Amino acid sequence: MQNLKIGFIGGGNMASSLIGGLLADGVPAERIYVAEPHSESRARLAADYRVHVTESNAELAESCDVIVLAVKPQMLKTVCDGIADSVKKQLIISIAAGLRSDAIGRWLGRDVAIVRCMPNTPSLVQCGAAGLFANAKVNAEQRDVAESLMRAVGLAVWVDSEDLLDAVTAVSGSGPAYFFLFIEAMQATGRELGLSDKAASLLTLQTAMGAARMALESDDDAATLRRKVTSPNGTTEQAITSFEAAGLRDIVGDALTAARDRSISLSQELAGPARLEKDSTGETTAQ
Asked: What is the mean pLDDT of residues 111-137?
């Protein structure tokens, strides 16, 4: 990893968090390159991280062994079209939501090693959770590189089917917003019950962090932990009974399924229909 040249196309928040994680993991700054169109952002990246910066995506692609596509999904086709002539055997890592590896390969104009990642925003504080999928061209060494990159800012989990990245999007990609909503609701109710704004906020946030840490560090699953803190006829049981009566599990299930379904439809909207052409062997291929 330390000997590879790693390039980021796009220097936004997620790219910055990954760069910070790589540097903390011991990757030398001189091995990291960033292509960013805005001069102010280039200056900030160079000052904050001492990495190489450039305005040219093609220049970066020609220089690097690993290319991280860290741009908005709507921009990805344009970016791929612009670097297609510069991509040969590099590992392509895409963190653009919704766009499948076959679409990226089609835009790059060749069968290339692609890892798709679905990170989430807690990566910005080195506490992220990412799902990863590798296409058939990715070798074992390249898988290790992609996993190391994402582990620099949190947890990385491989999935065997690219379709499962839509489920990853629903669970962890969008997941922080669900917890933020629950935190909002708890804080608001705490205030309604008489707590000060500060007390309601701090108590809720610390409780959320403590519960997550217990779940991560305990050998018990979440259901067992819940049962252990739910005394018969106690206050917690009353709250849990209220949640269950309101259909909380069905609400969560419906919400995550809706997020998964939207991820699928966004992928179809962004990638567009594949154009079928015959190659020199007479086989029909997507273009």
From this structure: 95
